[in-house]
Amino acid sequence: MVKICCIGAGYVGGPTMAVIALKCPSVEVAVVDISIPRINAWNSDQLPIYEPGLDDVVKQCRGKNLFFSTDVEKHVSEADIVFVSVNTPTKTRGLGAGKAADLTYWESAARMIADVSKSDKIVVEKSTVPVKTAEAIEKILTHNSKGINFQILSNPEFLAEGTAIQDLFKPDRVLIGGRETPEGLKAVKALKDVYAHWVPDERILTTNLWSAELSKLAANAFLAQRISSVNAMSALCEATGADVTQVSFAVGTDSRIGPKFLNASVGFGGSCFQKDILNLVYICECNGLPEVAEYWKQVIKINDYQKTRFVNRVVASMFNTVANKKVAILGFAFKKDTGDTRETPAIDVCKGLLGDKARLSIYDPQVTEDQIQRDLTMNKFDWDHPLHLQPMSPTTVKQVNVVWDAYEATKDAHAVCILTEWDEFKTLDFQKIYDNMQKPAFVFDGRNIINADKLREIGFIVYSIGKPLDAWLKDMPAGQKSNSTGGTPNTSRRPRGRPPGSKNKSKPPIIVTRDSPNALRAHVLEVSPGNDIVDNLAVYACRRSRGVCVLSGTGTIKNVTLRQPVAAPGGSVVTLHGQFKILFLSGTVLPPPVRRHVAILRKVRIQE
Ligand code: UDX
Ligand code: ADP
């Protein structure tokens, strides 16, 4: 009986081995990990990862030919084929920091294999590692081999989370790279025989070692590039009035391009895309190809830009401040049908909003409060280390509240940001949500999943990525020069109180007088006597503001009435900061001058 052992019971190792066990009853599969809680979870009814269909597969084979264990050395020493699927974080220090893969865990796994092995083994590289890692690992193994023959293979995984089981059942291709020596070819055949239990022969591709390793990085870079391309188009669509969904549909009908992976979004996330591209960039730099490195780096820069742009859109739309406003975040996972939050765009968006002092109420059907708090406090790239090496008790972010219901998250909120495309968000009762929100009520759809027209009918101000903008949003530029160094977008440090895109120089206070041309259409506001004292009343209106009135005060202002009602019907009062109230009329368009003035509202005074 062939024995397989997989080191690393993570997102890759767990599902892949479970499917191998299911499809190959004659093979014994052991999945080992140094993390005791993780192995305990694999042996329980509550598996450590959420993946549709996984429970069934595990239940069918666990205890028969599929075992989860912490006895790493025993299972490695008994195995014929050892898969290595351990963490390969991006280095945060030293040579190649921020780009190169940290192979600490891989190296220690390789040394352990060499230590405990008593028979020949095929060692399969399963985690994404930079090209030529296999060569390094081969050296470690052969220099410590005690006469044992090790064959190194690269067998990159192409499964996507949320559809991992389907991807494993019906893969587009299985790629096996090995040495082109008789022993190498024999090892490739042995692994091919495992997959041949259920994968048609023509879908099992064999290549040399380096091609297999590079193909994995290249495939992920190409996929991420499509998303950055369509996201770049989404910014242009917003600026010009085109609709990105129509554009990507039209582009995708070209059979040379194809329709998949062309959905504009708030940005791509996941454990692979960014990391693999950073690896690719580093490899290019190391090989004296700075132009090629720069080309791929741009895919990440656009992704960071898209997240920053989204945050800026939210803040700019809400009078340039979200301070102390409740913002509901629907969805935190990096995509639907997974509880995985690695590199999720939600982290940068939330950090950006927190940087502007928003209060966040977050709901995701699969992500726990502990995970969200961890993600919002952890340093970049820290997630990619084994659990026991991650910060144990992260400090909690106080302005963040995690709830288990979308309605609770949105209650009394000023805005809703949809950051993951969970199906359940499409069928929410938005009328109920609207009724329980502060007005004006905003929806910022980072995944283009809601019916914007219907929501507008209800009364929401809606932003959908890459779609023609609401009148409200039109004059509020959300594009901002993204962080030129790449890496994390600089959202959390965006200066408050000035419109995104503007230069950082303070503007002189604006004095609006009754006679000033700007005040020609000013409407006088009155605070009813007997209510809270308003000692800092300011009124601003501008010729082009079409009825906008802005009122500021240091206390809570009630019963605001218009002495000279304007033509536009309705009107609502919203609280800003808890210190200001802005009265605006429905259908109001905020032209650039007003936006600018709203930002410096405190300095505006009426002079009699
Ligand atoms: C990816 C690759 O698809 C897979 O082959 C590889 O082995 C691992 O990396 P995964 O990270 O699970 O898989 O997710 P994927 O479905 O590729 O999505 C990645 C990110 O791109 C998600 O945040 C997703 O929301 C986003 N995305 C995807 C878009 O924004 N638009 C799209 O059109 C498609
Ligand atoms: P992936 O998404 O690539 O599967 P994960 O981080 O989910 O990555 O899984 C990697 C697993 O490898 C973790 O559970 C970690 O505890 C485990 N691991 C890391 N180093 C070792 C090692 N030397 N021996 C056994 N398990 C290891």
From TrEMBL:
Keyword Disulfide bond listed: no
Pathway the protein takes part in: Nucleotide-sugar biosynthesis; UDP-alpha-D-glucuronate biosynthesis; UDP-alpha-D-glucuronate from UDP-alpha-D-glucose: step 1/1
MF-aspect GO terms: DNA binding; UDP-glucose 6-dehydrogenase activity
Pfam families xref list: PCC, UDPG_MGDP_dh, UDPG_MGDP_dh_C, UDPG_MGDP_dh_N
Region Disordered, residue ranges: 476-513
Residues where NAD(+) binds: 8-13, 33, 38, 86-90, 127-128, 161, 272-275, 342
EC number: 1.1.1.22
Matching Gene3D superfamilies: Cytochrome c1, transmembrane anchor, C-terminal, Hypothetical protein, similar to alpha- acetolactate decarboxylase, domain 2, NAD(P)-binding Rossmann-like Domain
Residues in PPC domain copies: 517-608
Catalytic residues as annotated in Swiss-Prot or TrEMBL: C272 (nucleophile)
InterPro entries linked: 6-PGluconate_DH-like_C_sf, NAD(P)-bd_dom_sf, PPC_dom, UDP-Glc/GDP-Man, UDP-Glc/GDP-Man_DH_C, UDP-Glc/GDP-Man_DH_C_sf, UDP-Glc/GDP-Man_DH_dimer, UDP-Glc/GDP-Man_DH_N
The entry's keywords: DNA-binding, NAD, Oxidoreductase, Transcription, Transcription regulation
GO BP: any one term: UDP-glucuronate biosynthetic process
NCBIfam families attached to this UniProt entry: NDP-sugDHase (TIGR03026)
Name the UniProt record assigns to this protein: UDP-glucose 6-dehydrogenase
Protein source organism: Forsythia ovata
